[in-house]
Amino acid sequence: WADAWAHRDSEAYFAAYDASFVPPGGGGRAAWEARKRQVLGAAKNIEVKIDAPSIEKGSDGTATVTFKQYYRSGRYHDAVVKQVRMVERDGHWLITEEKVLSTLKDGRP
Hints:
- The protein has helices at residues 2-6, 10-15, 29-42; strands spanning 46-57, 62-73, 76-89, 92-103.
- By secondary structure, the chain is an alpha+beta fold.
């Protein structure tokens, strides 16, 4: 997912999301994908670093992964603590939900 994002590979990026994924903040999946495709297409260079992942398995067969995410592209950059909920489908773990838990102050790994 992070590699696909950094390489601006929209098909692989979206393939990491389950069909049940609902974008944070509402709105439909189609509108979310259109916005993401626009950002991926406009960015000349994207850097994504994932640090300190922790995984909590749920009794319902899901996994919740919490990690620090460092993103940089052009003039924009951020550093956040993100959480994704995942489900296994046909041997692949897919994202069903994602949310930013907090912003990191230093912005560096």
